[in-house]
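Internal tracking record. Fields below are filled automatically when a chain is submitted to the structure queue. Please do not edit lines marked as system-generated. If the sequence contains nonstandard residues, flag them in the REMARKS field before resubmitting.
Queue: standard
Priority: normal
Entity type: single polypeptide chain
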Amino acid sequence: MQAPRGGSIEAQTPLTGLQLVPFRDVLSNVVQDAHTGLTQLAGRLPGLSDEERKRQLLEYLQTTRQRLQRLHVCAQWAHKAKAVNTCREVLKAAQDHGAAFVHTADELFRLHEELRFSRAPLFDVSTALHISQTGTYRLLPRIIEDELQQPGQRLERPGELDDAARQRRRREALRRVDFLLRSKLLATELPAGMRVQRVRGGQATVAAAGGQYTARLTLVPAPRDDVTLAKYRPAGEPEEAAAAKEEPEVVQPAADADGPSTSAAAAQQPGTAAAAAAPGALAGQQREGPDCWRWQLLSFELLPAAARHDPPPLLPAQRDWLQQHVEQRMWVAADVEQLERLGKESWVTVPELPSAKEQQQQHGRASVGGPSASAVATPSASVAAADKKGKQVVKAEPLERQQGPDQQPPRDAQQQLPAFAARPLAAMHGILCQTAGRLALFSLLLSDARQLEGGSWKGGLKLSRAAAGKGLRLAYWQGMPCTSHAELQCMREGRPYQPEAQTAAAPGAPADAAAQHQQAVTPAVEVVVQEDGSLTVESCPQLRHALSSQAVQLRLPLASAASLSADQLLLEAAAYSAALQLAAVQVALQRSGRLSTAHADLSIASSSSDSGSEAASPAAPQLHVWYGGSVQLSLSVQLRTGRLLLRAGPALLESDQGSDAAALVAAVQQQLDQTQRDALSMPLPPGSSRGMLAARLAADALGRLSMQLSMRQRMEAATAAAAACGLRPAALPQQLLSAFLRQAAALMEPPSANTLTLMLPAFPPPPDMQRWAGQQQQRRQGSAVGSGAIRCFLVLDFGEPAAAAGAAENAAPMAAVQQPGSPSTDVLPCMLLAVCGCTARGTVTRVLQLAELPAHVLTDARAAAADAAAVGTAPATSRKRRASDAAEAAQEQRVAAEAAQEQRVAAEAAGDEAGLGLALASAAAWCRRQASWEALRSQLMMLPVQHAEELLLGRPPRQIIRLPKAPVLAQLEGWAVAKLAVVAGEAPPAGPAPKPAATMQLAGAGEADSSGGGASGGAWRVDLSSAYFAHLPELLRQQGVRLAPSVADAAHIAQHSAGLTLRYSLAAGHSVLTAITDLVRLGMLHLCLTRMAGCMAANPLAGAAKAAKSNGGIKAEGAGVACDVPTNGGLANGQLAPEGAGSPASALAWPLPGCGSVLLQEAGLTHLSLLVSPPPLPDGLQHLEQPPPLRLTVSWDDTLASSSRGSSSGRGDGGSDGGDGPAAGLQRGSSNAEGAPSAPAVAAGSTTGGGGGASCSSGGGSLRHIRCRVVSKPALPEPVLAALAQQLEAGRVDLFLDSLCLAGHAGAAAARQLTPEAQRAAGLLPGALRLLGTTASAAAAAAPAGGAGSSALRLRAQLQQGGRATGLHLAFHAGGYALLQLAPMQHGSAAAAASIWLPPLWDRLAKGVPTFSPVEALPPAAQQPGEPPRPQQHAAQQLRQAWVHHSGLQEALAQVMRAVAATAAEAH
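SYSTEM-GENERATED OUTPUT FOLLOWS
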């Protein structure tokens, strides 16, 4: 069976459509669907991904499985098909029956609707006939007309008035009632404290001015006079006396007196004469006007502000009882008022009021649940009874029943009755006000206080009866000392405290007064109910404002729900008590002298009553301790417990010492708690109290903490000011400082524990000093050599807090007479400068010096601090005291004096930070200069240089160091003096030549160093007083040398009329060794310059014709002018001209016939430039182009400044290794160098000996790092340049010039082929070519500098690649020729291979290079018979030699390299 698709069976067809299908059809459909789905799935799967195939296959299997399961269920169900068919028929029958029932119901409903329109009403035919016959309806009861009809009125019949007329009559009636209410109110004297809120809708709403109650009143007809007289007529009084009548004063429309009274109190009692009188007779006796109406209380509400109080002040039963009681009293008062109007006031007797003692007892027994009838005096007693209708009726008993005739005193006509007895409104007002006051006190305030006693005020609040017995006493801060205003005044005035009990006690009872004096005063407030129902609050002791001393009156109004809170009242009283307590602490702080750098300010917020915010809790007063313009500490009182609370200021917590300050505050908080407990048990000093003792103890703890924090804040401010000055805190090892103090214990006191160590900017260790120290340590075989590095620290000693407190306390009297605007001058700590030695990495190793800053530095620092403090004395209006405008004159003067004193202290504290910053800036500037000076001294002490320190007095003093006299500079000085004397036409001075003076000192404030850092960057200078350098341009003109412009390495050197000034900076890494090296470099370069110029000028081969013939003229590169006819030594040729095009070139030349010439082009402070012209071309090669002149630059460099040189370096033999060789030659040459430049002839002829190198110290090797450097363009081979530099270092200027003429251009040609690029082009691998130097043998290499071994005319190299190896030797000769030698190796396979590739190479060179001329080998020596062959003979046979001109040298070397790099196959 297949279920229908699209929903359930019940939702598709009724039971009538239910049919059975064969099971085979269902099975066939399921199988066909499964087969069709599988076929379609098989067709889709190949085109899908693996995951998609799995997913669709899983969906197909799940769907097919569910269908098969349903088919299985249908197969099991098919066995019950017959029973199902039977059930189907039964259901069909039930469905038919149900449809019939529904149809029947519908027909019945339709019939019911049709019958409703066919019915007829049952008319009142008899009444209709009665009305149609008589015209009216007379069958109503007679009593209705009797009750409603009034004289002169006719009752409206039903239907006569519409709704609008009825509403109009109602409004008119209400208007008349409102008129009567206003008339009654105008005619009635309202009791004091009652006010009318509104009259509306026949009701008058009145309320108490103090918020005790609100009541709604209306008017009811008053009983007739005869009824009232009959009710209160005394026994024996004639009855006609009650018949007297008076004319009404105001005639107002009134209701008929015959009608029944709507007031329950006006109902007539049965049996009286008034009740028996006829209505007509009584109508004539009733008065008209306001007196014919009485007040009736409709409802009231006590304490409207507490209407939402839970539980309510009055329960419903209590409210009903109280309303009945008030109505009874008002009715009795109205009777008395009526009797008084009728002249029967003698009938009224008022009982005596209870005495004060009885009132106190009654007040103690009073309860809100049932106020006694005697709470308000009444004219008579009253009883309440209920009639049969349940209305309350009040019956006034006659007075004779209350007291006998004998007890009735005669009443005077002039005597007036009390208001509460004769005025209904006064009676109501008095009862409700008294009840409201007692409810507020005993039901609201007392219950709230009891909750506080066990809640938030637990342990600190005690409830008791007031001293007067009429109220409640709330004593707070139990077990805590409290300060009264009298005690505060004694502390301010500095007089002993005498309590009132002790001063008022008799002389015979001192023990009781002393015992009372020993006890702590507990503050309390008393709440008392007044006669008008208001609550008054009195404080004990009397609270006064802490600043203005005005009495504080606490209020408890009943008109506000927030004010009826015991917690609010206690918090307000506690706030004033806390202000007195904090004021006492403030006075104790000021008198203790612990606020030397801070001041205390008492901040009292306005109370809630003053500010108008009744719901807000009063703010707790705070005592702020100010330091540096911010709150340092804040002391307050926890209002509910009286506990002192200490907090750190926000600025202090946000600072770097916030965590430490919080820990200190927490520790002092515990001390404050302990001091409050100790103040209750400690013995009292004379003239003190518990509160005063607690204030002094708290002030002592607070003062110590403030001084400790002030010390830390001063240190923090000093740290911030130091950071602005470029100083940062650092740790100076305590053990090193202690070790220094043990040695200098007799000279200075050790610093205190409160010190701040600031590290001055450290300069980097000079690299040259480090390298020099390393070389010295190696030379001394491991002995330690100091680095010369130092670190300087600025130590700020703030002293001990106790000493500062004592000084402040001693200075307090002086501060009192100091002017408020005068700044404080002692705002600076003690400043010390610590100089420490350290390693190269900056690790401090020992303390060298610790001394206080000089007096002039401290004077300048204090002056800067005083100026800043004077600027900071502006009025601090934000921290002024709040003084009352109504304070007394004396009090205002005292407050003004204290405010001025605190303003001065605040100004000093505000200017302290600024003053400290300026002082530190002044001190730091001096310390930086001193640190630079100490660094220079330390470096100078490390060097083996003799020097002298001098102090030049002045403002400020200056320190200088005189450097030793350098011999090389002394030679230049003597030569310059002699030259200048000759030029001036004077005789040379006799005696020793003057020596130049070199002084070292720090740069001035406006000077800048070589790095642009100025004096703050460790700038210093060396001033050299030298006649040579002062007249350097003139001397160069005399020698015919052009002055070269300054180069980069001479940017820090300035030439002036007195000599030279060399500027350095420690920040840039310059050291004293750098300055000494520069001086020696300058001296050695210019000594070489003078000698070279002298040699060139005195050269006998420098004739004009011979020079023109041999040189052919030299054109200076870049000069723009050719010197075709040089004249050496001529003044015309040596004149200086501006640089640029057309400027004359130098004519100082060194010609070498057939070998070219050397031209001295220009000279500067640190270098000189030479031009080398090529030799003339040989015959047959005139068609070739001459190479350009060779340019050489000579200088003396510091090898410590740069540890290695480039490829163009002229350093030879190890550079700065500090060994022997060239450096040793420097020392040997210093012995006979003085007279070398004095005479040019001697210099030119001096071919042996030294004379060029010089050292400024007697210690050997101290300046071996100063080496000559020769740079060429085009480049020469490095060994050649090194040999040239060695010749200049040895003083062989002539040999240097000859070597340049011989080897200059040939060496340049060889260098072009020896470059790595040329080697790669020839096929050589890296490392295949190795230069061996310029020496010819090991013996020549060991020869002294300046000999044959250091000749620049030889160049040795070795070529080796694969199986080919040969030695390459070049010897430079005259005419531009070089002797090329190839010496193959004599061992191994290379020797055998040389015979294969060397001969073809030699033939190619002879044929391919035009200037290549082979040299025949010498014949071998004769060999003895039987003698084995000698290696020398074999080597001589293999050696190949040839002469090559420099024009073909490069090609020859290229072919040699290609031959060595070629393979064996290429060779064949």
